[in-house]
Amino acid sequence: MENFLQQLINGMTLGSIYGLIAIGYTMVFGIIGMVNFAHGDVFMLSAFIALLVFLILTQVLGIAYLPLAFLIVLVVAMAFTGLWNWAIERVAYRPLRGSFRLAPLISAIGMSILLSNFVQVAQGPRNKTVPPMFTDLIHVTDGPLSVTLSYKQILIMAVTAALLLGFWFLVQKTALGRAQRACAQDRKMAALLGVDVDRTISLTFVIGAALAAVAGVLYMLYYGVVNFSDGFTPGVKAFTAAVLGGIGSLPGAVIGGLLIGLIETFWAAYFSADYKDVAAFSVLAVTLVFMPSGLLGRPEVEKV
Amino acid sequence: MAAPNDRPRPVLQTALVDAGFAGLVTFGLSFPLLAYRTEQDMQNQLVVEPRWSLSLVAVVAIFCARLLAGLIQDWRARALAIPGALVAVYGGRLALVADPATGAGVACVGLALLAIAFPLDARLRHAPAQVARSEAPDRGGLFAIGGLVALFLFPFIMLAWLGPAGSLKWINNFGVQILIYVMLGWGLNIVVGLAGLLDLGYVAFYAVGAYSYALLSTTFGLSFWICLPLAGLLAAFWGVILGFPVLRLRGDYLAIVTMAFGEIIRIVLINWTDFSNGYAGISSIPRVTFFGVPFTANDDGFATLFGLEFTPIHRTIFLYFLILCLALLTNAVTLRLRRLPIGRAWEALREDEIACRSLGVNTVNTKLTAFALGAMFGGFAGAFFAVRQNFVSPESFTFIESATILAIVVLGGMGSQIGVALAAVAMIGGTEILRELDFLKQIFGESFDPAQYRMLIFGLAMVVMMIWKPRGLISSRAPSIFLKHKRSVAGSMVREGHG
Q: B299-356, pLDDT tens digit by residue?
């Protein structure tokens, strides 16, 4: 039981990160029906931006107060990752809109290879180890149970919850959110009603990247090490999360992320850590085969 | 925006604004990834070092490129201007770093090309649009025969030109390497190009083939010629096993699930050490023999038997012909199958699955045969890979390989055999060439390693080629069956890739 609770907390932490990345996949798929293969690498890129900004802040600008540095890192990483994804969409995906379906997928795969190798060339292939932050632990003891929570984990879950609230507000209550939902439902109709579709799609990419950047900052914080090849596996797992939750559904992405995080953690804890990726990939295959619309997705009806 | 204005803005102004914006964005993108670099200091701590000059170079390069693209809009003029600009930059850099005289000369040539491009662009842009060309006569057959002859002569030409030592690299790194990908591309083409099933996990079958040969030959001592069909069979078997659960899936979903299967197979190969020896891989796999005659310097070796002087190039040339034959076998089978009912069912399935079902095509069998046949050729290629390397490890079967093969098929034009071959030459040959660009070291210094940028340029090429030709190099299609005459179908009329 004790171990179970501990793993539950670890799984939720990991799941928060996956959920944040999954939103980017699900939004892009919802609006232009494309699997943005490079999204995992955008996430990795954001972790590097966060690392560099953190080092610049502490070493060059000499900011020693950690929470302030963390806040600045978060904001700056969100902004610059957003800019990256905006540029990627503009260069690699927009020219292919309306082209046949495989073209954007191949372009996105190319972009994914390009991004990870760009970071490798620009920052070197070695693991970058970050000085440990927020390392304090809290021991919660209640009778026979005792669970250890780290400040990091609390921070990760708190930041995720806060940003998801803000994001939910953005999508449900603002004009941009309305335009975005309208485009996801019917792009042509939205355009006829005066929604600037191109701008909405661009902003969707920016928002997706900003959330991925939050995930990147938290990932860097949690694991304390980043590498240029770190984008692929979390990317696929986040995509799995998006599919599991029902692609196109925003709450589904978060729930899927948490589920994947939990499945992976429990699998590693109770079965085999070597095969934890196999567990996540199998969930993807099983979901798609038996439940293609996921937990909360709308079933796709094919019209002749 | 200002009031509606019918007059277009001056070209220069538009181009400058556009280029300035692009430069600004580049500046944003380059911070902090280019402008700072992390290094490990003595205490193994990360420190950042500013590197703003690199960021500046990127901004200037993008600004200039964007400006040129804005000013020169006709593609023929661009075809002149792009090499011109590159040559000018190369010359300028050469003049600054190594050799002022030559560098200045090279730069002048580049600038001259650039200078010609401007008036050329102005003339071509105002020229009346050309009438669509009349249909070119069908030279496909001639082209194929010429290509075949060139392929058969290639190792001998290289051998005569560069000698045994010099030609080894070219026959091995270019000939054999490209042909492996041509074969894989043709194999995947059955699944993706003909049947329209988007498979991103093709490397799994390549791995099955490679491990089949590696394990059968090291454990049971079976020869390559027995293992080759076995490897194909095992891969086809796995093709059916992995194909069965995904029969209902289409398009991108199918791609993702097949990718997951590919990754699962790789992770199992890494972790199931009793079976596959994990990361360490399987080494000392028996080398290829000339139908039983080994390529060694011994008395019973190939060289002695044929009265030749022993060199390792004999084995390489044999491998070259082996993969050439395997690739041609793939091609021949594909071309034959396209005319058979099963091949026509594949192509019909690719165009419209619902119509197929309504007309009574058994989609389950059709899809599974496509998976099985595609996988079988992947297995053959895998067995060849293992015998060529004498070593297999899970490292060789990463997702990047699957993506590369799929990119080759899509760039080739999905379904076009010649197109796939051309795309393989462009993508694999192009990245191999990057290893050879040693002259760049003169400019960027000895520490500059062009091979480091191989995958970077590879990814960039994938994006650029997709934007340039979204339907692949050869998008028009010659129908397999026709009523009176063969008329090629424009790419935009074909609807592949919906899975």
A: 777 877 787 777 778 888 889 999 999 999 999 999 899 889 998 899 888 888 888 8
Question: Of chain A residues 89-118, which have a CB less than 8 A from chain B?
Answer: 91-92, 95-96, 99-107, 109-115, 117-118
- DSSP assignment of B317-371: HHHHHHHHHHHHHHHHHHHHHHHSHHHHHHHHHHH-HHHHHHTT--HHHHHHHHH
Which residue type is seen at B291?
Answer: F
Contacts of A120 in chain B (CB under 8 A): 456
- For position B130, what pLDDT does the model report? 55
Residue span of the structural domain in which A154 resides: 2-229
Contact A281 B263 (CB under 8 A): yes
Whether A236 and B263 lie within 8 Å, measured CB to CB? yes
Cα A84 to Cα A95, A210, B236, B298: the distances in Å are 17, 10, 42, 60
Asked if B268 and A52 come within 8 Å (Cβ–Cβ), the reply is no
Coil vs helix vs strand at A140: strand
Where are chain B's structural domains? 11-124, 151-493
CB-based contact, A131 to chain B, within 8 Å: yes
Task: Indicate the helix (H) or strand (E) that contains A239.
Answer: helix A232-245
Q: What is the ipTM of this complex?
A: 0.88
Answer yes or no: is A207 within a domain: yes
Domain annotation covers residue A252:
no
Flag if B410 and A106 touch (Cβ within 8 Å). yes
Q: Give the model confidence (pLDDT) of B361-396 as tens digits.
A: 998 999 999 999 999 999 999 999 999 988 999 989
Asked if B132 has any chain A CB less than 8 Å from its own CB, the reply is no
B261 touches chain A (CB under 8 A): yes
Whether residue B410 lies within 8 A of chain A, CB to CB, comes out as yes
Secondary structure (3-state) at B223: coil
φ and ψ at B50, to 5 degrees?
A: -70, 150
The number of folded domains in chain A is 1
User: Which CATH number does the domain B151-493 belong to among 1.10.287, 1.10.3470, 3.40.50, 3.30.70?
Assistant: 1.10.3470
Q: Is the dihedral of CA A281, A282, A286, A287 positive or negative?
A: negative
